[in-house]
Amino acid sequence: MANQGVVKSAAMGAPKPVSRRGRKQRGAVRWLVLALMLALLALTLFPFVLALINAVKTGPDYAANGPLSIPTSIQFDALAKFWDMADYSRKLLNSTLISAGVSVLAVLLSLLSAYALGIGEVRGSSVILAMLLLGTMVPQESIVYPIYYMAKAVGLYDTQLAVIIVIAVLQSAFGTYLLASVMSTFPREILEAAEIDGASRWEILINVVVPIMRPTLMVLGTFFFIWTWNEFLIPVVMLVSNDNQTVSVAMGLTRGQNLSDPILQAAASLLGIAPTVIFFLIFQRTLTRGVAAGAVK
Amino acid sequence: MAAALPAFHSRRGYYLYLLPGTIGLTLIVLIPQIANFVLSFTAWKGVGTPRWVGLQNYQRLLTDDQFWGSMWNTLLFMVSMTLIPVVIGLILASVLFDYIRDQFGERLSSLFRAGFYLPQILPVTAAGVLWGWILSPIGIVNSVLEALGLGALTQNWIGDASFALPAVSLMIVWIQVGYCLVVFMAGLSRIDPALYEAAQLDGAGWWQRFFSITIPMLAPEIFVVVLTTLIHALKVFAPIFVLTVGGPDNATMVPSYLTYYHFFTTQRVGYAAAIATVQMILTMGLAVIFLRFQARQSEARG
């Protein structure tokens, strides 16, 4: 589920950490609170652990000891079986291509529009921004059929290109909104200095604005990537052939129907969640660190 | 300044930069939106020429139990998308921010935050496969109940009409808490610690500080999170698609799944377009409230 509030606070730069206050308390309460929070965290992470320990169990082990026991021996048969069954390498490749494509295209579109709105401050900027914000909230259900029909009419149905274009445009509404609000605080002196040096608008965008905005653009691109990876409605409607489908669609179509084997279900879950968990671990810092701080002071 | 740099302030040249985005949004959002609206007044199977039927689709909606059931379920999903995650998120954020961080350090509180946030970044369909397995008749919940000697309480959680909706809601809460938590923690770092210190000196306990400082000071974040999650609640789709397909017996039917079903399974495109239009109007209603709030906020900030 795309949650844009988080990006906004990440990309706008986290406020300075507040000075540490208060002395340390002593006593049992402190440990009780910690224990309670740890228990809640364990509960939240429990499903991940379950998928992990059961995906590598043997059938007899599961039958004898149930899903809650630690595996007595480790085997990757179920993972390999689901991998083949779902043609998972292909799905990973498709998801990566589509997400990367959207990420680049959407950042580019957002950058161009935001330049006109945030720095150019063209007439009607604030109305356009409000419209964009409305655009980010439009339910995809109310545009999906005409898009599906149009894609069929122009021969782009069941192509990854169609999915890339549609999702990139949808996400650029938010990207434009965000970048325009960051750019509206862009130091005017720098722009004016470049102008005096005889730089054209395009040169100012490429040589001045983009380098300074780079950290923000990277964060935006990273979020676009993950959101696209998780997109479901548009890809499931547009990509009917198995060879074009994404991880998210493959998972949606798994639906446990052919997976009466619980170990295979655990393996499918594990493979479905693993890529995003890995991104999260890699990009956690990028995603949570403020980026405005890296820009001009 | 402005007079010295007339070229910079002529805004004409910037319109060119708006062109790609405008073309894109017109083709992908504006035209389809209008087309969908027009289609909602027609009967159409997706091929041939749509036949104009006026308000007939909307009249049929008024008496369609499946539609009203889906609306009612949306209200119930607002509890698991918004109400419960916001309450849990507020308490967790506040404990992490002003207790765990103080007592055990920044590192540990960030670790907690990352852990609670993790379910939020998964593809919902993958989370659905995971939970479908956890909630299945031979799944984890039932195994735990049996291990605890409560075998009598085991259920076919997703397959039973009276448990399916709470079962799906459980997964949604699991996904949503992280979002609320992260936004609230970012908001908390904006609050002046002197406020808490003063309250502490006055002898206010943790809950008192929670209700009289944290909640009022976080009002803007709470408002934003409530509205965005309410909008998401109107569009619950993937969890239903993966876990229940709207069943059993329509117990978990939602408008998004209903439109998908009529667009692509029964091919009643006009009727589906009417449901999607209702969804769009409700969403825009919430979105307009959101925009007006944002405008007021930025005015207040000056």
Main sheet: strand order of chain B:
1-2
Supply the CATH superfamily name of chain B: MetI-like
Overall number of strands of chain A: 0
Which class of chain B in CATH terms? Answer: Mainly Alpha
In round numbers, the mean pLDDT of chain A is: 85
Distance between the termini of chain A: 34 Å
Named CATH topology of the domain at 89-257 and 271-294 in chain A: MetI-like fold
The CATH level-2 architecture of the domain at 89-257 and 271-294 in chain A is identified as: Orthogonal Bundle
Number of helices of chain A: 13
Structural class of chain B: mainly alpha
Proportion of beta-strand residues of chain A: under 5%
Number of strands of chain B: 2
Helical percentage of chain B: over 70%
* Quaternary organisation: heterodimer
The CATH topology name of chain B reads MetI-like fold
Describe the SSE topology.
The complex is a heterodimer of chains A (297) and B (302).
Chain A: H1 4-11, H2 28-55, H3 59-65, H4 77-85, H5 88-119, H6 125-137, H7 141-153, H8 160-183, H9 188-196, H10 201-230, H11 233-238, H12 247-254, H13 262-288
Helix pairs in contact in A: 2-13, 4-13, 5-8, 5-10, 6-8, 8-10, 9-10, 10-13
Chain B: H1 6-9, H2 15-39, E1 42-43, E2 51-52, H3 56-62, H4 65-104, H5 106-117, H6 124-134, H7 140-147, H8 164-188, H9 193-201, H10 206-217, H11 219-233, H12 238-243, H13 255-264, H14 269-301
Antiparallel strand pairs in B: 1-2
